[in-house]
Amino acid sequence: MISIIIPTLNEEENLKRLLQSIKEQDFADYEIIVADSNSVDGTRKIADKYGCKVIPGGRPAVGRNRGARVAKGEVLLFLDADGALPQNSLSKVMAEFKRRKLKVATFFLIPFSDKKISASRIAFMFLYNIPIFLLEKILAHAAMGIMIERSVFDKIGGFDEEATLAEDHDLARRAKKMGKYGIFKSSKIYVSDRRFKNDGWLKTYSKFLLCEGYMIFFGPPKRNIFKYNFDHLEKKKK
Predict the structure, then answer these.
(1) What confidence tens digit (pLDDT) does each residue in 73-96 have?
(2) Domains and their CATH numbers in the chain
(3) Would you list the DSSP string of 186-224?
């Protein structure tokens, strides 16, 4: 069984799309756990409608760890609420995970777009997909979609809840020390580019790049030195 764990905060506009993409998969041996951080919109109602197990969440690392603690699956799949799975991708990545004997894996990212060629798609390709491909054997990266063997997750103590940024990359790098890491070749996942559009591509990518350098020398930042707020979208709406 796969335990799919999704942290949420006021994601009613996006969660339905993700849950529907999971429901339409050709793979049925899964459970969905939504770790909700006191949403005030319809997020919990949507999760209930789709039969998810809803638990109290927190910041992304906290919510993911809480979800893992109640998970029943031997494999954990962490997804962001504003993403989606391509058709029949779950069976493909599960087969690849087992075939390649991976312990932790992640995805190349495709932003939602009606066009096959768009500024966002080109940006994700050159700023994220190509760099993590070139560094796959050297330095693990994992964002917006992470699959990890439950036993490895437990051994490394899960996500670092003190990290203010890049807790997902940090998890992948610690897990890589316990077993094989890889990037799925059988399927990508759809993701939102809303943060880049709201905060600006240059500003947001600069934060990620600076954080990358920081992590190499000091590990994940424990103070919010890069001014990266997980609730920034909600603040903009108010």
Answers:
(1) 999 999 999 999 999 999 999 999
(2) 2-237 (3.90.550.10)
(3) S--EEE--HHHHHH-HHHHHHHHHHHHHHHHHH-S-SS-
